Amino acid sequence: MGPEVVLSWLISRLLTQCSFIIQSEISTIYNSTGELHKLKSVLTAILAVLSDAEGKQLKNSAINKWLSEIRDVAYDAQDVLDEYQFEILTRRVLRQNSSWASEMVRRLFTSRNPLLFRRKMGRLVKQIVNRLDEIARLRSRYNLVTSDNLEEIYNVQSQTSSFIEQSDVIGRDKDRDFIIETLISEKFTSKDVSVLPIIGMGGIGKTTLAQLVFNDNRVETLFDIRIWVSVGDNFDVMKICRCILESVTQKACLFSQLDLFQGKIRETLRGKRCFLVLDDVWNEDVFKWEGFRSVFTSVANGSIILVTTQSMLVGSVAGTIDTYQLAPLSEHDCWLIFKRRAFHTFGGEEPQNLVLIGKEIVRKCVGFPLACKALGALMGTKREEREWTDMLESEIWELQKDSILNSLKISYHHLPTHLKRCFAFCALFPKGHQINKDMLIHLWMANGFLPEMGRSLEEIGRNIFNELVCRSFFQDVKKIEKWYDCEVTVSFKMHDMMVNLARSISMEECYYLGEDGWVPDSKIRHLGVNLYSDLAHVNGFSHIRKLRSLVLINHSSNQIPHQLMNALCMWKCLRSLDLSHSIPPNKDIPLYHLKHLRYLNLSYMNIGTVPESVSHLLHLQTLNLNHCEALRELPKDMKNLGDLRHLYLTGCTNLRKMPVKMGQLRQLRTLTKFVVCPESGCSTLSELRDLKLEGILHLGNLQNLKSVADAKASLDLKENIEGLYFEWVLDEEDILDVNEELFEALKPPKTLKMLGIKGYCGKLLPTWLLNDWSFFRNLTEMSLSCWPRVEFLPCFEEFPLLKVLEIHEMKKVKKIGDKDHGGSGSFPSLCYLKLTKMASLVELFGLEKRPHMAQPFKLKIKNCPQLTIIPVIPTVREVEIENCSNIDPSEGFVSCMICLEKLVLSECDSVVLLLEREKGDANMPVKELTIKRCTKRMFNRPPQFGLWRSFVSLSYLSFESCGGLVFLPDIVMKQLQFLKYLIIFCCLNLIGSSENDGLQLQYLTSLEKLSIIECNRLLDFPENAMRHLSSLKFIELVGLREISYIPELPITLTDAVISGCTKIYSLPDNMHQIKSLARLQIMDLPNLISLPEEMLYLTGLEKLIVINCRNLEKVPKGLGKSVGLKCLRIKDCPMLEGETRSAQGETIVSSCRFPP
């Protein structure tokens, strides 16, 4: 960051440090008072002219250089004064310990000898004073005016900023409609994959336009799958493939080879029409593009890749459709964006004098919506005409050439100083990076960027963060709750142009080392290193001597390069060090020399112990050990870390004890986990009594609590704790030894928002949970699990803010709620109820009478075999009932759910049969219906269809292992005109739509995917059952042992799998007409004799697999030379002999003979 961002703050902090040290005993002991007074005097003289210098340095580069020199010396001065403060902390720690006298004697014979230390520090302070004196004399050369006001220029605004909704997108409707019309035009729906690039300058709205298209209803209807990937500078094909696969499957993907990724993507996307957005692409390598596009050979025709980029070359290399050049917004649209933010604080007024000035400011934004948004937010804080005129006439417009950066620099220039330095520090992070809010605030704290204003540093940091969000410097703020992991985090991103802005103003101090590999300047103070990059060309970092922050950008446990690890040993000025997710070259992490360190992040590292040297980092404020799963214990002398404010231990599953005297950490605010240990030499829970903790606290191994005295941690007084998670870990034979009074002593605060209790082995509940519900008036989430002895639970329905209630594995609980404990059925805020593994549960009092719930609701009940009555909730949107065989629902159970969109029924025959008896509205909103393991006869005679007549909106229907499904009547099939997916799996008794007819599929005119697997008794399909299914793209017929032929298929088909149909002797007659067919798999057809000659007409066929067709003796002439065929595999077909390859030579086909 530029010197003007840092100096006033830094010098003010130095003056405060000087005063503190002068007043301490250290200055007397080491005879440093005189030199410190001289330092304070010269700093005061420089501070007096800073205001004038910072204003003039915009035009005078000599003044800018002069300020830079002062900044460098000031940083060195801070390091020297930190040495004094470290000595103060050391002496405080020694006094607290019994070894005070012996340690002072020992130090006489070390480098910490008071005489040697005094000489060293005196020399260093004198050098600093001389350097500053020499620089300060130059101030007369620049005619700098002295300011009479020497107060700190910190001006933290008193008002708090709130997260406001982003303004509606303005001026892009025509762009959106043009692109969507292009996507749905016929000339592209017949192609396999088309690439449409959107090109425009940074900040012009490319990403916003892509988001509009992506979320448009027309696009959602047209495509089976929509995927969004933010690419950035590095076009890493493996990383992009990982994002695509995880987006589609919603599961983490752990593949380490690109071939595995690509194969899985082809399999997952086969036959689906896909819409993929690649946002912010810079790759201009045509070979990389071709390799990437080959991943999408299995998708359906009409699939689209939408690319946003600033590079015309990227558009020409990647695009298969004419690029769309995104133009700047009109002045009118820019004005609408600007005024919405600029005048929102004016009470609806738009003063005409300010409107005229504002329109001139907007004209200088040259059509960039991001600039209009940022400047509008800035001007919303200014009401005087002079302030608006000053903005319009600002010299920054003329000094910079880049139009968009001009606009953003104006907003930056008018930030308060403390916001400037906090924003500029973010230049450490790569574009598109998800930045953790709390991590960033702790980094700001570690580097002293937060002003001390009589409130906690964390609160000041949060206010600064909110203000930067409000001013559009930060965006995409997301709250991520991992309640199962006792973790709630807030993350955000910065727009690429905001990253550019941060880098442009902080290039002298902050640097991100990414793909370009340019080695930063020797004066760099804050460094971010992307471990995904190839750092082999970086010779070393030895030229950087005074680094203060090192942040490794890494998410997959990459090894720290040796040159970086070697440099770490010499960076003695580090204030913040982030090695998370990384692997050191050797197990030792050098920390002993980092006496200035305030922030240490070792999260997600495979370490069993934390180096004991951490106990000597007396300035340490934040220690993050989250998800160090191998971690067994903490440094035994952690009690010495008197400045420690945040200790993160989430996910440390093997942590077994806490170090002794944790109660001495009086500054501690965050402690995410505390493990109770019965051994001596460990902290008991009572050590937390006087700590002012906040956030989420996980109390583990509570079975080790031995007395009520040990359990008294005064949790009920800790009103800043938002979440508590109690956990007992006991074997079955130990459960009788639980002292229930101990749980009574763990009374939580009334401000609690999240409560989790796992493994409680007592029989009686504490009174604060059973009766005193005033403790839970703020509770929003509650998770109760694994209580082996409790037989009764209250209904919890009176908790006014409760949104999520999960109850799991309560073996003996027979009822929840009773007449004496609730029963009104209010649940005013409940959105999600989950009951699982409740082996004895019979009744749910207060829920069986259709409780009123105003919120959209999701209900899951699994493995409750004794439950007879389940709640009926009109506002429910999703219902999953599994293995609840005794449920006896009353009439109207399903039909009253007027908002129901998804219904999953597994092993609960009574509810399945209820669908046939109930009558409902003509059009129920159900879109997804899954029925599993229904054993009772469905659609029995005389058939009743009940709600099946109302499922006209159904788009997904699945039957799995339903022995009771014998017929799927045509009356039901006729109602499913909008069905897109029909899956029938292992329904062994299914015959068809009636006793004499196969499935009447011809009514499913919207069907896109048909999968029928292992239905052994299924009869032949009617002759015209499939030919007119004009939307069908994918068909899978597997294990249908009774069908003897396959009817003609629709010509829209792209993928077909025919396997295990043992009576089939030929393929469909119209196979040669399906020009869109791209992939065909034929397996385990013992009676298939030949492949028709007409298959050569399938010019779109890319992949043909034929396996285990023992009697296949004839294939089309020249099949192996078909130009379009990319993959040909024929295996275990003994009647064919020889060997060949596809035209591209990609796949060897062995043991086959092909006609010439």
From TrEMBL:
SUPFAM superfamilies, per the entry: L domain-like (SSF52058), P-loop containing nucleoside triphosphate hydrolases (SSF52540)
Residues of the NB-ARC domain: 184-344
Annotated GO MF terms: ADP binding; ATP binding
Any Gene Ontology biological process: plant-type hypersensitive response
Residue span, Disease resistance R13L4/SHOC-2-like LRR domain: 546-838
Domain named Disease resistance N-terminal: residues: 11-97
Signal sequence residues: 1-16
Keyword list, A-Z: ATP-binding, Leucine-rich repeat, Nucleotide-binding, Plant defense, Repeat, Signal
Domain spans labelled Disease resistance protein winged helix: 428-502
UniProt superkingdom: Eukaryota
Family: Belongs to the disease resistance NB-LRR family.
Protein name: Disease resistance protein RGA3
